[in-house]
């Protein structure tokens, strides 16, 4: 059976992570995979997470099964974190949340759920989008179509082209949107654009599917969720995939959630029963530890406060690095877009050859698309990276 299988190329993001690990140069810089790093280049366990883990260790009494929906308390608290405590959809009982194995688990189960709703569902994704979106959704055999999102010249959202393209979508089609901190471009929709796309989706009977993996790392927890909150209020149905990997630093614990906003409580109950049955037939139930940590933090005022302050500091650090990088690159061209963009990622807008030179000659790693993880920079590495960039850009001018 196996002899006919060919070796596949490595995943572009995870493959780069491996190549970086194998590079023996001491001055190498990892701007590849999207993990937050502190000034020392580490990805520390957040203080609130450490405390919650300690409390769990002392108080946990069982490891018995918890069920396909995961922890009820976690689900409720994540719903409130995404929507804000007083959101009308919560009051109207239109919200159902299930815990998933990371944001990827949420995306894939949303795809399986969409297939149950309509086997030939079409999902519209932004060009560009996160490298794993298409495998996750296409792997569930959904039809994928693309809408233009990023103007390559200005590296900002080409909103008119996006809207014009989505006019072609048909009722029942799904539109995948990034809730904040667009991955890979960092170019986000503003409040007016969210309002306009909500109008379009409503008028055409489309279903928005929002992936929000970086809440709190763009502007703040509330503003980053503005699109999710608006759509959940105005539209009968919305799907939201969320992740605790980045904002709680729980990457390897695989902690995420899938939220279904339904037209009413009764439809929500039926939809959730279908989703839970799909979960049971895929992985049965999600892992517990990360969600238990998040639940304890969100449910304990002093831990919540500690977590929020640490998250705010991470967000401010990213914003500061954005300003410093755009300034340091100014002699080589207009990189002011880096300061305008939000979240962990921006494209540098350089060629794959220049990306390769940076990797091979300078030990600076970024994706071939020139996506960099801003949070991978530090006061030490930023000058190295900007000097190398200036040199490489000067060389090929
Ligand atoms: C990234 O985009 O680098 C992260 O979301 C990590 C991943 O799984 O790709």
UniProtKB/TrEMBL annotation:
> Which keywords appear in this protein's UniProt record, sorted alphabetically?
Aminotransferase, Pyridoxal phosphate, Transferase
Q: Which cofactor does it need?
A: pyridoxal 5'-phosphate
UniProt record, GO biological process: L-phenylalanine biosynthetic process from chorismate via phenylpyruvate
Does this entry carry the keyword Transferase? yes
A GO MF annotation of the entry reads: pyridoxal phosphate binding
Q: Which InterPro entries match?
A: Aminotransferase_I/II_large, Asp_trans, PyrdxlP-dep_Trfase, PyrdxlP-dep_Trfase_major, PyrdxlP-dep_Trfase_small
Q: Where is the Aminotransferase class I/classII large domain?
A: 27-383
List the transmembrane segments: none
Cite the CDD domains for this sequence: AAT_like
Q: Name one GO cellular component term.
A: cytosol
Relate the assembly described in the record: Homodimer.
UniProt-listed NCBIfam families: PRK09257.1
The record's similarity note reads: Belongs to the class-I pyridoxal-phosphate-dependent aminotransferase family.
Report the protein name in the record.
Aspartate aminotransferase
Origin species, per record, is: Marinobacterium stanieri
